[in-house]
Amino acid sequence: MAENDQEKTEPATGKKREEARKKGQVAQSREIPSVLVLLSAFSVFYFAGSWMFSQTTDLARTLFLQMAHWGATSEDAHVMFWYLFQRIVLILAPLVCVVAIAGVVGNVAQFGFMIVENVLTPKFSKLNPIAGLKRVFSVRGLVELLKSILKIIIIGGISYATLKGEMDQIPGLVDQDVWSILSFFGRVALKMGFYTCLVLIVLAGMDYLFQLWKHERDLRMSKQEIKDENKQREGDPAIRARIRSAQREMAMRRMMQSVPEATVIITNPTHLAIAIQFDRGMYAPKVLAKGADRVAARIREVANESNIPIIEQKGLARILYKEVEIGQFIPADLYHAVAEILAYVYRLKGLVSA
After folding, report:
1. Three-state SS string across 61-108, please?
2. pLDDT above 70 coverage of the chain, percent
3. CATH for 254-349, options being 1.10.8.60, 2.60.120.620, 3.40.50.300, 3.40.1690.10
């Protein structure tokens, strides 16, 4: 049984998942953001490639034409550098922005926004070469190697198939100008890229399912771990029992301390005892204490020590014990029955005083 309790066969609890998330341990496929970045880059080249190419050639033409007019002073160098910087940023801005957004979306879509608390904390265990070798030759390392080999095969196969389909057009490029040749190879490269992305999307989906399965397996807990977590969350049952016992003892002590203030004790006669208080300033009698069996016997003992009258009234005692809590006033439907007992007690006290 002890061995079964230690086997990690149970799904992770919410607390375990939250702790793992805080440490950055989530189901994550690196292939999804990679393929989205690649697809977005090819999309930018497809829709804005002509504009980027024309801007680049225009920049090169401007540099060659203006180079003779620029001097060798530091001010001229500053102007040239600033001009180049602005033009290059303008040309690359669509590509950089779209690729950055794709990378963020590829990660957020998997596990949402996440702040890792100890991401900047240095872990010297990562510098251990033995631990590094273990990671390389682990199951995860083997899976990553297989994925890399599979991607190489996919890219190589798609490239070969695409180029083979375009081979009959290559001889005709001899009579074409430079721009036509560049346009042809650009179109072929885009076709290869999109076909590759389509296949890599399927591979990324399969990798995500694998990472999700592996993450759930790594988070599994043993039955003993779940018990320990419940104890930590709710407290040790033994400690809770001792606390409840102490609370009951304190409540019992306070209740017994209030018995001497009672006007009368109503019993049934041995199993139940209810201490009733009433004076001229109260609008209704109030239950100060009540108990059964041993507690009832203790109430009677305190009442005898304090010279409080004890009246046997079986039916009324049962109703008061069942329906009225300690510290509450008795309900209106019991006024008459209790009033008769109080009147008898007052007459009894009057006779004793006389």
Report:
1. HHHHHHCCCCCCCHHHHHHHHHHHHHHHHHHHHHHHHHHHHHHHHHHH
2. 86
3. 3.40.1690.10
Q: How many residues does the chain have?
A: 354
The b-or-e profile of 33-64 (16+ CB within 10 A means b, else e) is bbbbbbbbbbbbbeeebeebbebeeebeeeee
Q: What is the pLDDT of residue 354?
A: 35
C-alpha radius of gyration, the chain, whole number: 43
SS3 for 7? Answer: coil
d(CA 145, CA 268): 84
* Dihedral angle over CA of 172, 178, 183, 189, nearest 10: 80
Q: Please give the backbone phi and psi of residue 230, each rounded to the nearest 5 degrees, phi first.
A: -65, -40
Can the peptide bond before residue 269 be classed as cis, meaning omega within 30 degrees of 0?
yes
Q: Lowest-confidence range among 11-20, 122-131, 182-191, 286-295?
A: 122-131
Domain parsing of the chain, residue ranges: 23-115+126-219, 254-349
Rounded Cα distance, 57 and 242, in Å: 84
The structure tokens listed for 8 are 């990690």
264: helix, coil or strand? Answer: strand
Contacts of 343 (CB under 8 A, 6+ apart): none
